[in-house]
Amino acid sequence: MKSSILLIDFCRIKDKYGFLSDFSQGIEPDKLVVVDGFYGAKDGLSEAAQKSIHFIKPPKAIYRSSRFRRFYDSRLNRPDPTCRHHVKDLVPRMCSLAYEANKKLGEDAALYNLQSAFEYCQSVLKQMEPSQIILWNQFHPLSTVALRAAKMANIPVGFIEYGLLPGTLNFDYLGQMGQSAVSRFPERFNDLPVSSGEIEKAEIALSEIRSRGTNRRKQAALGELKQEIKEKAQERPIILLAGHNDHASGIVPYDDTAREWHSPIFGSSADTANYLAHIAEKNNWLMIYKPHPFAARTQNVKDTDHLITIGDVDINSCIDLANCVVTVLSQVSYVSLIRKKPLVMLGYNQLRGKGAHYQVEREEQIESAIASALKHGLTAEQQAAWVRHVALLLKYYLYQYEGHSGALSYASAPQKLAGNILHSETCTDPWI
C-alpha cells in the first residue's frame, strides 16, 4: 500500500484510538496503516477513521509465552530460523519484561516470539511499502525488532510515546528520552522562538495541571501513609526517589549507549536506591523510594531507618510531601517541576540542558547536589527556565492526547503533527 504511513504498536496501547482518528484525517489522502497488538474494542475511533485506517493484527505467536501451545496450534508456522541472529540479543529483555508482568517466558519461547515478530515485520514492510514508520515506544524489545526490520528496508522511522505533560504525546525522529532531539540538542531547542504570550500560556497550562492534580494513570490515594512518613521523618528532610522502568528507558542493556544518552552512573533503579540509602544515612535524611509501577518485582531494596519503599500511590501527594525529588530519568521529573519542587537528576531525559534542575554527571556530585536542592529549593532562575521549556514543548513538541487525564488543549492538535510529518522532506527533522 504505497503513499501510506505505518504505525506499529506492539505495546498494545488501549487508549490511542481517538488520537488515531484525528491523525488519520490529517494525513489524507495518504493512508494510515496500524499494526495493532491490542485485540480489544477500539473506543474513540470515529466512523470515518474506521473506514480510512487499515488495521492489521499481528500473529498471536508474537505474544505467546508457552512453547507447548504453539506446537499444537496448526495455524502457525515456525519462523524462519535465519531471523535468529537479528534478534537473539533481545531475549533477556523479553524474558525480563514477561517477569515484570508476572508471566512465565522461557528463553526458547522468547526467541520464538522475537523471530516471529521480525519475520512478520519484514513481510508487512515488503507488502505495504510505507513512506515512513511510526513506532510506539522505542525501547520495547518488539519495537526494537521492528526498528531493525525498518532499517534493513531503508524506511525512515519516527517514535511516538506518552507525552512529557499529562494529556499529550511526544513525536521525535531521533529517539526518546535521552536520545530525543530535545535532549541531544538542548541549545538549539532553547533558541527556538517563543513569544511572551506563549510563555504566559505555558504558565496557565501548568497552573491548571497543578490544581487538578492531573496524572496519566489512576493511582491510589496516599491516605494514612502520609502521616506514617511524617512520623518516621521526625523533622528530617524528606527526599522522594522516583524509580524508572529499566527495560523501557534505554538503559537495558547497560552499555556505552545507555551511559552516554540515559544514565551515566547507575545501571538500574534498584542500584540507585541502594546507593542513595547510604547517602541518606550519612546526612540523616529520609529517602522515600517509589519504584516504577511496571518494574516493582525486580527491586531488591531493603527498608532502613533512612529509606522506605512505597507502592503505586498518588505521585502528586508524594511530591508535595517531599522537600526535593531525585530521579535518574523518570517522567516524575516533569511532575516535580509542575508542583514547584526542586529536582535532582542523575541521568537524562528531555530536561537535559534546560536549566530547570540540579544536574549530576558523576557519582561524587550526588551528595552535594541533593544538599543544594534542599538548601536553595527551586530557584527563580530554574523556575523561569522551566516555564520557557514548557512553552517550547507546547509549541514544537507536544500533541493533544485524550488518554486517562484528558487532552491538554494547550498542546498542538494531532492534525498538526500529521501535516508536519507529511511535509518533512528528510524524515530526520529534530522537531517538527
Describe this structure in words.
- With 432 residues, this protein is an alpha/beta fold.
- It has 18 helices and 13 strands.
- The chain has helices at residues 17-26, 47-52, 67-71, 84-87, 91-100, 107-128, 141-152, 181-184, 186-190, 196-212, 225-233, 256-261, 269-283, 315-321, 332-338, 366-376, 380-396, 414-422, and strands at 4-9, 31-36, 53-56, 132-136, 157-162, 168-172, 238-242, 286-290, 307-309, 324-327, 343-345, 358-359, 398-400.
- The strands form 2 sheets. It has a 7-stranded mixed beta sheet with strand order 3-2-1-4-5-6-13. It has a 6-stranded parallel beta sheet with strand order 9-8-7-10-11-12, with helices on both faces.
- Helix 7 links the parallel strand 4 and strand 5 (157-162).
- The radius of gyration is 22 Å and the shape is globular.
